[in-house]
Amino acid sequence: MAAQFGRRMAKGAATAAVAALAVAALSASQAPGVTVDGHGRQTASDATPSPDATAEAGSATGDSPYYTDLPPLNSPNPSPSPSASGTPVVQGSGEAGIPATVLDAYKKAETAMREAKPGCNLPWQLLAAIGKVESGQARGGRVSADGTTLSPILGPQLDGNGFALIKDTDGGKYDGNSSYDQAVGPMQFIPSTWAWAGRDGNGDGKKDPNNVYDAALAAAHYLCRGDWDLSDQTDLNSAILSYNHSQDYLNTVLSWLEYYRKGTHSIPDGTGTVPSNRSDSGGHKTTSKPSKPKPPTTKPAKPSKPGTSPSPTPGGNGGGSPSPSTPPSPPATPTDTVDHLADAGTAQLTAMAGDEFTKKISTKAVTKAGKAVAKVRVRFTIVGDTDATFAGGESVAMVATNSSGVAVAPALRAGEKTGDFTVRATVVGRTVAGLDYKATVTERVADTLTRTGDTPLTCTPGGEFADQVAVKATYKSAVADKVAVTATLIKSKDDATENDKGPYFKDADGKTVRTLTGLATDADGKLQLPKMYADDTTGTFVLRITTAGGATLDVQLTVAAADTSASPSPSPSASASS
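User: That's the sequence. What structure does it adopt?
Assistant: Structure tokens below.
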């Protein structure tokens, strides 16, 4: 593409001047490393990854190929209307149009992240930029009403032939390939990443990488997983590079992000433009071939004159023949020096269901000599049958070690499932043994129960109590919500055996029961028991209410015959004396 652009510049001074101005404008307003095609669209040039884009296991796409077409130089405003025939607009500001369902998916994902992780500041335009680069907005919006692509969108198999080598991780479940993984769907997730990053964005109970709502929400969570603030340019760059480790990819996405921020509009599904240039084909092919090695260009040395010694060849061994040139080994990165991970003083990890763990996991990256290693990325993964998450609802978090070699994981938040689970720390980009941390979620508890009313609870034999018992549970003076409660009519305060006479509850079939289980306090820590009834036994009875955690409350109940004695009539008022 660069060569074609150069030839166009040579056609005349006027053309050269215009082209030079275009390139100057592009350099000033867009990312580096781009050229412009004949339609005014930009096309990213081949570029090598920057040091910041080090190969990191677990990138969203497995560094699969992507579209290199860049937005046109002109502003997308005002937004044009689709043509009456429904034919896609192929050039100019028509590029600003995003298919309606795809656009809706991006905006819904932004809204979800604003609630789940507001500090990430994810703009939907970033999802649109990545969606454009990865799949051309789901191939121009060829999706069903629920957002599922009408046909699979698959990247090439990652077999190491010009691409990364990623052997099958999903048994072909998502990509149909049981030998190697392939990037799948409108946001091009590889199956191994989708396994933990997948989300249900359209509420159908499934996590489908081929559904644009699911894929957009997964991409949003993926981009926000590293405690990045995407309103900060450095964090934004890091997040994009984590999706695909290429400086050229970063430049391409940033260009579309800026373009969509200037203005965009909704177009009918299926009428969007589809890019034509891919990073693995020089912008013109759809498949890649390994380049053939060129023959050596070294000229044979001239024969020396008789009686003279051959001159040493620069860089040679002094014996007249050149030393074989050995390419220098790349300098070791901090990650390369890590020998193992060590615990950095993590306290016991225990939390009540629904609460945040008060302690955090601290892991230290260490060399074989025991020296701490800074600037190493550590991945923390929640493993096991649990609904516990890191802050923001993530099950995976990546944190770089600080100057002391320590990476502190985000705070853990317990779900509703009780029991043990594991948080596994691993080094990103290096195979060393992981370090497991045990965490425990205990059931919700209360330490205090009180009645919310003080009306005496009385009833006549064979009748029903006019008032229902209502209580409030607290734990350390705070509301104790969703705490398990049991209510039993016992024989006495000194005998907790279930009573066989006196007040009772009714089950769903209207049968007499004197013990209720499966109760729980509400979000305010309150609980109102069902109505109670009385048999023909009179006297004073005890209702004992207990909670998980040991809170106990005894409530007195009275069954007595109604007082049928007539009330005395009030005496007539005496006449006021004058």
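The first strand starts at residue 34 and ends at 36.
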